[in-house]
Amino acid sequence: MNKSVTSEPQQSPISQFMETRVGQYSMNHPQQKAIDCNLPLSLVENKSFRHFLSVVDSKYSPVCRRTLTSKGENLAIERSSKLKTQLSKTDHVSVTVDIWSDRKMRGFLGVTVHCMEKDGERIQLKSNLLACDRFKGPHTAERICKQFEAICGECSIKDKLDYIISDNVANMRKAFTVCFPIEQEDEVLDEDHLDDPELWNDLTLEDQQTVDAPIAKKQGFQCFAHTLQLVVGDGLKETKVMTSSLSKLSKISSLLHTSTTFKEVFEAEFGERGIPAAVNTRWNSTLRQVKAVIQCDHLKLSHVLHKAGHKELLFTVWEWNKLKELVDILKPFGEATDMTQVEKIVTISSVVPSVLSLNHHLEQRKPQVHFLSDGITAPFSDPVYLKAAALNLAFSLMWVEHHVLVKEELAQRVKGRLFLHRLAIRVLAVPASSATVERVFSYGGIILWPHHAQMTDRLLSNLVFCKCNAS
């Protein structure tokens, strides 16, 4: 019996495999470059981390922080060169621009570039980070303009620019008025930039003007989301009847984040549910805050406030109903904001349908709404918004009233015009908001966590650039 047991083959202990050294990965092997979690570079020199990797994969070759920093610099140069090559093949681009300050109060100017590129049989919207460079000194319009022009000159895109999208801050708006002064009406485009010169020669003078006149001048555009922010923000300021309710709500949210006693009483009634804090510069954070509180039962919340000794924060029935009305009124504004801030799809064509939908929404609530409708349409009257909506098959001309529609035979004639393709690849590449460059700064904030605070501005720029242009 014992003999039969000992004669059976025994399984090798796992330590045998761990102790066996095999050939290590090269520095260019995908497994060697697999970690992508915005962790501090110093982690690679941590003794416990190195031991962990040696156990998980003995082929991993340890690297030092200095090597990673050097490789980050080289990778940024490589990807910048690749991006410039890609941009040299396109004739028209639009950009988003913004300024950000990191935890150490260092300023950075971010620029993202957007264009349509042919990918096989399809045309796709491409977005890349053009630069996230250190911006020193006061944020004046002239200095912003100078550094922006330097970035465009380095990437050879200044003559290809159609639109610049930024927020509504005065220095940004003035900067791009300086960059792109009003051009003469008789200025024509360089024929070297035509996608199909023969097709262009076949067009009548009237058709040529139809294509190029509205977009022949470089323009600075207001970010759609930021403009909605200003419209709704101004409306809320004028709505005096909501001031008391929103003030109470803000104090309740603050108590949940500062008072352990109130937090315990609240959790005893509502569990892990919370009420997020609102940010003054983001009205949609106020919307999320109001949504969170009205999901609580009014009577139960009143009981919690009474029990915690905060009777002054009790909502009356009238105030509670007004909060519900506020959510009904602002919810479509939140949806429109989200729709025009998505990535990798055309967004400018959503502006006109969104504005018309919001207008209709406000008209239906005329007795309740007095301050929002006046400011919703004026900033988006530029013809490029109309053209973008018409050129997008998802909307086409469905949003146009019937008596405005062109005659059927004219519509059929226009449908066969190939030059609309040339117009579409210029117009539909324009982003509706500056959300893309704002996401860049979000990456920067993640990379520069408190334990990364000693990171140089150059290294931060390189890491952000590589992260945003990874694909």
UniProtKB/TrEMBL annotation:
Its main location: nucleus. Keywords: Metal-binding, Nucleus, Zinc, Zinc-finger. GO terms for molecular function: protein dimerization activity; zinc ion binding. Residues 420-467 form the HAT C-terminal dimerisation domain. The keyword ATP-binding does not apply. It comes from the Eukaryota. This is HAT C-terminal dimerisation domain-containing protein. InterPro entries: HATC_C_dom, RNaseH-like_sf, ZnF_BED_domain_contain. GO terms for cellular component: nucleus. It is found in: Nucleus. It comes from Oncorhynchus mykiss.
